[in-house]
Design a protein that fits this description.
Radius of gyration: 14 Å
Low-confidence stretches: none
Number of strands: 6
Shape: globular
Mean pLDDT: 92
Strand content: 25-35%
Structural class: alpha+beta
Order of helices and strands: EEHEHEEHHE
Number of helices: 4
């Protein structure tokens, strides 16, 4: 999360480029209904407050334009080792099982310079799309 757009806090998924485009497309297609962040890395270090149920967020695509409005449906904090398979499935990224989810997420955060262990606090954010913008709209 960084900044605001159209009066809403902004959410950008994954790293800029192909990853962000893929994840954003999954949200717009209805396949991705959740995302995971790290309490320390994505919130405490950034000085960012946790989302709350009912909050609306501006989903921003690779071009920096708002492509959808999301509504937060659930926010759960839990140790990395306790993230359930149901949440991993809701991320909509084709994970085979919870082990595959853990491996992929450890790798992603390692690339970001952060080592995750089983007790690292994960923010499990669930959402629904409440509005989409057409291409070129800001």
């Amino acid at each position: 999360m960084w900044g605001r757009k159209n009066g809403l806090r902004v959410v950008e998924l994954g790293l800029p480029g192909e990853m962000r485009t893929t994840l954003t497309d999954l949200v717009l297609a209805g396949a991705k209904r959740a995302t995971a962040g790290l309490l320390e890395l994505d919130y405490e270090r950034e000085g960012e407050e946790l989302e709350h149920v009912g909050e609306r967020l501006a989903l921003v695509g690779g071009s920096g334009d708002q492509v959808a409005t999301l509504e937060v449906t659930e926010v759960r904090l839990m140790p990395f080792a306790e993230v359930p398979w149901e949440f991993a499935q809701a991320e909509g990224e084709g994970f085979r099982d919870i082990g595959h989810w853990r491996e992929a997420h450890r790798g992603y955060w390692r690339e970001e310079g952060y080592e995750v262990d089983d007790s690292t606090t994960v923010v499990c954010l669930s959402f629904r799309v409440v509005g989409q913008r057409s291409s070129g709209e800001t």
